[in-house]
Structures are given as C-alpha cells and as structure tokens.
Write a structure and sequence with these properties.
By secondary structure, the chain is mainly α. 61% of the residues lie in helices and 6% in strands. The chain is built from 22 helices and 5 strands. A 5-stranded mixed beta sheet has the order 2-1-3-5-4.
C-alpha cells in the first residue's frame, strides 16, 4: 500500500489539494463581469435554449463574443442546476484541467521536475487562484490554448485544429494561435529552405479556427446586423499612444505584479548564465536551430509576443494574461532548474520564496477587480447589505442601485438575495424606497431625504444601505 502511494505522481496530489482548497470559494456569489455578463448569459441559455447561434442570447449579454463559454456553463447548469456553486464548479474543473495539461507539456518538453514546478508556480498565483472558480472565459480560454500548443508540440495537428477552434469559439483573442503556429511553421520552412506538402497541410489545419470564427461572424452579421459588438469595437485602437500604456501594463503585471519580480530575476540570471557559458560567440538566429527543444521554445516566445501584441490593441484587464501565464510559468520553471544545475548550489530557500511570496499578494489593499481574492471580501459585504435589505423590503419594492449590485438584485440565482426584485432602478431615481451603493461604484447619491440603515466595510471599500424618508 505504501509503495502504491509513493508511486502516485505528485502532480495529481497538487491538483487534488488545489481543488479541495477552492471548494471553499464555489459558494461565493457572482462578482463584477461574471455577475453582470457571463453568468447572466449562461443562465439566459439555461432558461431558453442552449445554442452557438449569435442570436441565442441578447447582444448586451453576448457582447459579440463567440458563445462556447456560455454554452459550456449553461450545460453545467443543466447538469447540476442553476446554482452559483454549479457555475463555479465547472470553472474549477477547467482550472484543474489546465494544471494537468501544463504539467504534461512541461514534462514532455523539459522534465517531470520542471512540469511539477510549473504547475506549482501557476497554482499559487493570486490571479489564477481568484479566476479559477469564476464564471468567466479566461480560464477556459487558457485551457484550450495550452492544450492546442501541447498538441502542436506533439505534432497532432487534428487536435491542434480542434483545440484552436474551441479556443477561438470561447473568445476571439485565440486568433493568436493560428497566427503563432503559422509564423513558427514559416520560420522553419525558411530555415530549412524548403516548402513541402506536410508543411502546407499543417498550415491548412491550423487555419481551421479562422474558418470557424469567420462563419460565426458572417452569421452574426445576418442575425444581429454587425460583425463586432459596437461598444467593443470602440475599445480597439491602433494608436501608439493607446498601445504603449496597455503593453506596459501587461508587462508590468506579468513580470513584476503579485511577487513575480522573482520570475524576472530567474529569467535575467539564467540569460546571463547562458551568455557567459556561450561567450565564444553566438549567432542569435542559430540558437533555435540547434535542437528540436529549442525550436519548440521559439514557439512559446512567438505565442507570448503575438498574444501581448493582440491584447494591447484592446481594453486591458489583468485576467487577460492568463492565456499566456501557463507558458511563462513553464519557461521560468525550466530556467530555474537550468540555474540550479549551473550553480550546483542548494536552492531550497529559492523554492520557498517562489512558493510563499505570491501569498503576500493573495489579498491586497488595492482594488484589482477580480485579479486577487479581495473580491471575496467585497462580495461578502454586498451580500450582507442585501440580506439586510431583504429584512425590510419585498420583491415588489423599488430599489435603487448601479452595477454590479443592480444585477445582484434582479436574479436570486446570483447568490445575493432570497428573492428576485422586480423594480430595480438607478440609484438616483426618486422612486427608490431603498438605495444601495458602494465606494467602488459610480453612484454619487445625494443622501438628502435618506436614512442610513446599515453600512459594511470590507478591506478596500464600504457598502451602504439607505431608506427613503416617508
């Protein structure tokens, strides 16, 4: 029995521990974008029909995105019921799947030890911990993108076409996959100075997601009258003045935020060590031609660069970097072991730093939306205020609120209220008998004529409940 336990791959224990830890969070009510858009979209499908057609849900919920994310969560609701924990459980299963795919990718490319460390590095990141059980597309997108890259490295191109298509039908940002694969294949063809039938077949297969997305956009034009959601189209900018701060934000968050300055230190030290070891002269273009492994690492770099470039064209949020974070964790883990082999020194203290520093950023004193576990405190405060409201009001009571509390009141399935409120208006509406607002929202309520019933402070904000004087 003991021998069987010892034979168990520790990565499965890691994933199990992560799953059990996150079970504490699956009953949290929905928050921010998952409350205002994504859970509502999935619940709308649950209530009506589950479909990939663009007109299956109202544009204000689809936002012009492909609908696979909503479909998967809606199927989860059909299986488990339309409960908060059901949506979060589906997300958590994808998160565990992502850890497993990352391990196998890093193991096959480098070693078992690198794969295990890569999983640990990703699992302890506050942004991953927070997102791992939320009804949002980013974890699902990261899973399909990482699976697609793993399939590409194993030269399973039908799987590449499948996972890439699933990724782009989850969110159109996955257009970076065929672009990255195409660039990688073209570079190899240039270096090998030949164009063969196999390479052309690969190019054809990796274009599958573009075809799927093109069909979706064409149908969307027929059904909704536009290819891209007008509001989101306004966010896209090719101006350097807009691209630069977005790119700087992503690079800063990836390589400095939440304790990842240690990642940067490992990257810099390993690069310096490599240059010292190869000080006899290096032709940059030939580095990636030496081994098959180095050619695959080149794909990682292309994918990360293309992803950052595409992401910088649009509105930026911290969670968007999850589609590239698994690969960066893999590279950092590999560089860490490269350093340990070159220096031949005890590195246990460094490992401990890697494992403990991110937990210092598990909750911060800065509002970072859903990039760390601060959101749980905000949710608890809003839930307490709405519970107090339920003691005074009923379903027909007119309540004033703005996003995100506005949506928390409309549907009890969001996890906040014991019943649905039928009359929820803007917080400044004089018809509101009760008003809820927070220091985080844009409600600048004139408090004249209102009596404070309760206020609830969390780590970074305060939520208020007022009643109008009779």
């Amino acid at each position: 029995m003991i021998e069987k336990i010892k034979a168990v791959n520790p990565v499965y224990l890691l994933i199990l521990l992560f799953f059990l830890f996150k079970l504490n969070h699956i009953h949290h009510p929905y928050f921010w974008d998952e409350l205002g858009v994504y859970s509502r979209a999935a619940l709308y499908m649950f209530d009506h029909q589950i479909s990939m057609m663009p007109n299956a849900i109202p544009p204000e919920l689809s936002r012009g995105h492909p609908l696979l994310c909503s479909v998967i969560f809606a199927v989860g609701y059909r299986i488990f019921g339309p409960h908060v924990w059901a949506g979060h459980l589906v997300a958590l299963l994808f998160s565990c799947g992502l850890l497993l795919v990352l391990y196998r990718l890093a193991r096959d490319l480098f070693s078992h030890e690198v794969g295990l460390l890569a999983c640990v590095l990703l699992a302890v990141q506050p942004v991953f911990i927070a997102q791992s059980s939320m009804v949002l597309p980013e974890i699902m997108l990261a899973f399909f993108c990482t699976a697609s890259i793993y399939a590409y490295l194993k030269e399973r191109f039908f799987q590449v076409a499948l996972f890439s298509t699933l990724a782009i039908m989850t969110k159109e940002t996955a257009v970076v996959l065929p672009v990255s694969f195409g660039l990688h294949i073209l570079l190899i063809m240039i270096w090998q100075k030949k164009i063969d039938k196999e390479s052309l077949t690969k190019l054809g297969l990796i274009s599958a997601p573009l075809c799927a997305w093109g069909i979706f956009l064409a149908v969307q034009k027929l059904q909704n009258g536009w290819f891209f959601f007008p509001l989101h189209s306004d966010y896209v900018s090719f101006s350097f003045a807009d691209i630069y701060p977005r790119l700087f934000y992503y690079l800063s968050f990836i390589f400095k935020g939440q304790g990842r300055y240690l990642w940067s230190a490992v990257i810099i030290l390993s690069a310096a060590m490599f240059l010292v070891k190869n000080s006899g002269g290096i032709k940059i273009y030939s580095i990636w031609r030496r081994t098959e492994q180095q050619s695959k690492i080149l794909l990682f770099i292309i994918y990360i660069a293309v992803s950052l470039a595409v992401s910088s064209l649009n509105f930026h949020l911290a969670r968007y970097i999850l589609m590239i974070m698994p690969l960066i964790a893999c590279l950092v883990a590999a560089q860490f072991f490269y350093l340990s082999q070159q220096t031949r020194r005890e590195v246990l203290w460094t490992i401990l730093l890697f494992l403990t520093v991110p937990f210092l950023y598990y909750k911060t004193k800065v509002f970072n939306i859903d990039a760390d576990m601060n959101y749980a405190d905000i949710v608890a405060a809003q839930q307490e205020i709405i519970t107090e409201l339920n003691q005074h009001a009923g379903p027909d009571t007119t309540v004033g609120a703005v996003f995100p509390v506005y949506h928390a009141l409309l549907d009890k399935r969001a996890g906040y209220s014991a019943f649905d409120y039928k009359k929820v208006v803007d917080c400044g509406d004089k018809e509101a008998h009760y008003v809820i607002f927070s220091s985080l929202d844009d409600c600048r309520k004139d408090r004249k004529g209102l009596n404070l019933l309760q206020k609830r402070k969390d780590s970074i904000s305060t939520t208020y409940l007022y009643m109008r004087n009779e």
